[in-house]
Amino acid sequence: MPDHDTHLDEQLTDLRTDLRNDVSLPHPAAILERHRQRRSRRRLQAGAVAAVLVVGALMPTLRSTNAAPATGGPPTADTTPTSTDDRLVTNLQFAADGTGYATRFHLPDDGPGEPIPPFDATLLTSSDGENWDEVGTIPIPERTDLYLIGDLTVLGPEELVVDWRSEKNPTSSASARIHSTDGGRTWQDVPMPDVVTEVVPAIPDHAELVPACSVDPTKRPPCTTPSFTVVLPGTGTSAVLANPPPLLTPVPGSLPTANGRWWAVGQQPDTKDWAITVSADDGRTWNTVTLDLDLANDSRSNNIRASVVSMDDSLYASFVGPVPNNRETLRGIFRSDDDGRTWRQTWTPAPDQDDLPVTGTLVAGDDGALRLRESPNLLTFTDGGTTLTHTVHLGLGMVGWTRKGYVSGWRSYYELSTDGINWTKYDLPME
Amino acid sequence: MTTGDWFEALYQGSYRSFVLTAYALLGDLGEAEEVTQEAFAVAYGRHGRVARADSPEAWVRTVVVNLAKRRGRRRAMLDRLLRRGATDPDPPPPGEHLDLHAAIRALDHDHRAAIVLHYLADLPLDTVASIVGVPVGTVKSRLSRARAALARQLSPQEADHA
Questions:
Q1: A334: part of which helix (H) or strand (E)?
Q2: Is the complex ipTM higher than 0.85?
Q3: Do A23 and B19 lie within an 8 Å CB cutoff?
């Protein structure tokens, strides 16, 4: 009987891991849109008894992703009263020369009888990161899912692409892509083949890496083999590397580190151990090293969050992943002094360490400290990444890495840091 | 996400656990995801109150549980009205543990909820007791009976594989 008990416990643990991995985390924008729908419904319900009855009768329609439009069509931005609360900036990127672009979504109120209306998207641009102007509307593909996410990739001062993905699988390949070479004033559709056949020997200057996968709709999750492609300047098309990282389900940084190193994390094909790989020659060759992360081997790429930064002549990596209690927390800080040929773990969580679910990018400061900042945690690693100082600091947004520096915030403002220490807040136009 | 910060940390850290909590009560992963997203939307609209709560995580989990129970009741009522009898939730996600998954789904509601909440959502016994509204001793008893039932259902399969 004890053997049976142990076996049952093992099976339950495996099933728990499988279930958790089957649950993909929707993009936060989906929660915002759902919140907006709730608010809209509550306003309608407060209107009049008759209105309440109408709304109640139509609730199934409002909730349905495939409901047919009501007579008269959905409201448009021109006819629907708008509020800055309904607008948010979800993407902000910079070209190498400092030209900034951001996508601002407007989520108009939905009236009774309409399905979820299409939001509209506006492109913003700035030459200095401080003063932002509207460029124009970004074309949105016909919606095939309840929520769509528009991911912005900036390939040059005047060149950018927007990838549209389903929020249900935000790490999957884009379902549609548009490309602009005139700063977003005009857009062209980019063919998105199911299988990318173009091969490049190296990652070109100004290119970015974006998620991709082979989609099998009969499986959950449908993105069965997460990988990535290179978005090529000039055409906005996707290509694969001639010599890709030798890892299963590699998850790359979309941009190189400040000293020009490309990186990815993933699992070793034979052992399924988690590993990090670094290229110092634009993706032609990769240095791959297995890390002792104390993570279950059945952890998958969708619940591992890693970042790599350069500081002085070293690379530092942070890993956030699941621990036995199923919570995702910081599992280690690693350092390489030889372009990723070898790594050593400089910080390991103590057994009684509180969970540190910090999911943003590691920030390399000009003062020699590394920081992970995401409210309510501000983690500062000093002494070469070995000593952790943990303070509680509210109001810190998740950090991302851009070609201009570290950015945090978004929605109606963002913060920028070029030295990893000082942050400057800039407002974004929401009217 | 604006309230960014602590809310996003809660979202990133607890979403999957909440889904499994709702799954314990609904038996349907898709509905559980729907309920969990709705709960986070509620929490986002009341972020000031949630932030002041002793435990924002417990606050949102309570909303998840309440929404799941409400949805379960509504579904049961519709089933009775439509004379369909027991509901037939979506099939379980494909995986390597179909036998165990099927065995859990074959348990009655109370025993399934105890197993899923404690072993799959990884909640402590007192939290499970609070969610299902029974004393901790009853939860232990249900877990014990549920484990025995699972072992009985799984053992023929193992014999077949041997």
A1: strand A328-336
A2: no
A3: yes
